[in-house]
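Dear colleague,

Thank you for sharing your sequence with our group. We've completed the structure prediction you requested, and as agreed, I am returning the results in plain text so they can be pasted directly into your records. Please verify that the sequence below matches your submission; if there's any discrepancy, let me know and we will rerun it promptly.
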Amino acid sequence: MSTSNSSATTRLGTLVAVAALISVSAACSSDSDTSTSAPTKLGTTEGRVSILAWPGYVENGSNDPKVNWVSGFEKQTGCKVTSKTYGTSDEAFNLAKSGSYDVVVASGDLTARMVASKQAAPVNTGLVPNYAKIFDFLKNREWNTFDGKSYGIPHGYGANLLMYNEEKVSPAPTSWSSVFDGASKYKGKVTAYDSPIYIADAALYLMKTKPELGIKNPYALDDKQFAATVDLLKSQRSNVGEYWSDYLKEVSAFETGDSVIGTTWQVIVNSITKAKVKAIVPTEGATGWSDTWMVSSRAKNINCAYAWLDYISSPKVNAQATEYFGEAPSSQEACQFASDPNFCSTYRAGDKEFAEKLWYWRTPVAKCVDGRTDVTCADYSKWAKAWTEIKG
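Please find the predicted structure tokens below.
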């Protein structure tokens, strides 16, 4: 098993409730040392930078001498890196609130909380030269841009795919119906991602197959839409043999035949050697993630922080980090530096049509993110409670 696959495991921890999203913002708004503006120019680097990140994003060769892009940054900028990893977005949020970190990398379920609670400052992308190389379809999106201001630099992205055993599943599926309405055909051998955010996968399926429900965004569900989605997942439950939150369990289940169809990541597909599997984006599309490098509103080393943003988004380093972790890089130029010549084609890097099929993780909040103002949507606390009921 490659080291990159191991680094991906911790991302799969259960996401957490964010019902306090708005109240947290109010509680933190009085911090006198909080900056909510982006710098207009940079000065002399401070000699240090503190980074909070997913495992596999800030590697210094301590586990594998060949996996090291931190020392290059330190030599180039004079900024010594200290870093801490986290296992869930909730853990990252609590750590970020300490004010001990200059830079935080966040998935879409965390970015909004960072901004609402004033833990992140807007980013002046003009001070990050390598930002110009990043795919346009990753910029100015709802998970990295708020109130017209950029709050970070895109890092890598990926999709939640439908994987199936080609020798056990016939005909080859093209729709998520194979794990929802048609799941009984593979009763006991269906697998699903073990997290409340998986509710969005079911909502996406209903959005495309039950237009009468009026779902326009899988993260914006009113009471009727939410109830229908939960009912679908409860009906799926009897066909699910295993919910996975550790990717190694899914690899093992597909290789032993305990699972033959279900949601997955490309990095997991690449890890399976003892079964013939294939993964697709079904006709309805798929959910996914896009990670963002953010600057803390209480960054003590702003110049080194910006130096890191530019360095980690440079094509060569971005290729190292995303290939190691197992996700698409943020620029076409990065593909030239991948050690695997098939890396970018495998992860569909730069494929705008593919990327636009993905509904990237967002934090469900009561104020419907699809723009509706005449209804209230289920927030994440309701998603978390429902997930417990769904699994039974």
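Summary note from our side: The first strand starts at residue 48 and ends at 53.

Kind regards,
the structure core
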